[in-house]
Amino acid sequence: MEERTRSAGAGDDNDSRFDRAKEYVSDTASAASDAVKNQYNRVRERVEDADIGAMMDQVRSYVRSNPGKALLISVGVGFLVGLLLRRDEGDED
């Protein structure tokens, strides 16, 4: 009978540990969710405040005044995007 009491006590201890772990994971997930929401709102506000027309004018004037640099930058960006999007031949199986 005493052995059953010990095993029941061990089960309660395991349940308590499980509850604490569950609460910790829940709190951590909630904090991470709040942080992501805050960062999303900050980025959204910056995008809403951005003047796309003015940025395009700045890009056009930079390209006109520095055509060589602009060409090299665009080739470099295109190369990097190509590397990222390239599929390995072994992945197509």
Write a structural description.
- The protein contains 3 helices and no strands.
- The chain is elongated and about 75 Å long.
- It is an all-alpha fold.
- It folds into 2 domains: 1-50; 52-93, no CATH class.
- The longest helix has 48 residues, at 2-49.
Major sheet details? none
**Helix share of residues?**
over 70%
Spans of 5+ residues with little confidence (pLDDT < 50)?
Answer: none
- Average of per-residue pLDDT values: 85
What is the subunit arrangement here? Answer: single chain
How large is the count of helical segments? 3
The separation of the N and C termini measures 61 Å
Please give the number of β-strands: 0
- Shape descriptor reads elongated
**Secondary-structure element series:** HHH
Task: Output the structural class.
Answer: mainly alpha
Q: Could you say how many structural domains there are in total?
A: 2
Strand content: under 5%
Radius of gyration (CA) equals 28 Å
